[in-house]
Design goal:
mainly alpha
């Protein structure tokens, strides 16, 4: 009984010391982050913003190639559309562009702008397509086709990146 009690006290003491050490480490890190004389804070923020922008730009490569535009143009169009509708997701934006590209020839009323306006008004993608003149079944099939096109474009870019990486690795 006495040994069990000593083990319990020792365990409790070690846990308390570990928690104090963790708290001290976290508070020291917070002080270092908010130190008034710290230099380089703006640089790390701008670097993060640049990395985020580059990552977002890479995410538009596959769809941009399918839509015969540049990733930068697609990204700036997304940012403009996002200002008009803050709830707009990147996926819905890409789907709207692909749907307009796929259906625009047969249905001139279906444009990216019309789809985005429908999404902004609170309608779903299917409801928006139906309000633009498609039947429920056609809207469902169009969404499936667009999804396949988007995945195919992303897969092509991913495969090209893998091949380029393998080529760079082989060259070293």
């Amino acid at each position: 009984m006495r040994v069990t009690r000593m083990m319990w006290y020792t365990g409790t003491l070690l846990v308390a010391v570990a928690m104090l050490a963790a708290t001290a480490t976290v508070s020291a890190q917070q002080r270092a982050r908010t130190a008034p004389g710290r230099t380089g804070g703006a640089a790390s923020d701008s670097t993060r913003a640049q990395r985020d922008k580059a990552s977002s730009l890479r995410g538009f490569r596959g769809t941009a190639a399918k839509l015969h535009t540049t990733p930068a143009a697609l990204q700036s169009a997304f940012e403009r559309a996002r200002q008009a509708n803050p709830k707009l997701s990147r996926g819905n934006f890409i789907a709207a562009n692909v749907l307009a590209d796929n259906l625009g020839a047969k249905h001139p009323r279906i444009t990216t702008r019309a789809i985005l306006a429908g999404l902004q008004s609170g309608k779903s993608m299917g409801q928006t397509l139906q309000s633009l003149g498609l039947s429920k079944a056609d809207a469902k099939q169009a969404r499936k086709d667009a999804g396949r096109h988007i995945k195919d474009a992303e897969r092509r870019i991913k495969d090209a990146d893998k091949r380029a990486h393998a080529a760079r690795k082989a060259a070293k």
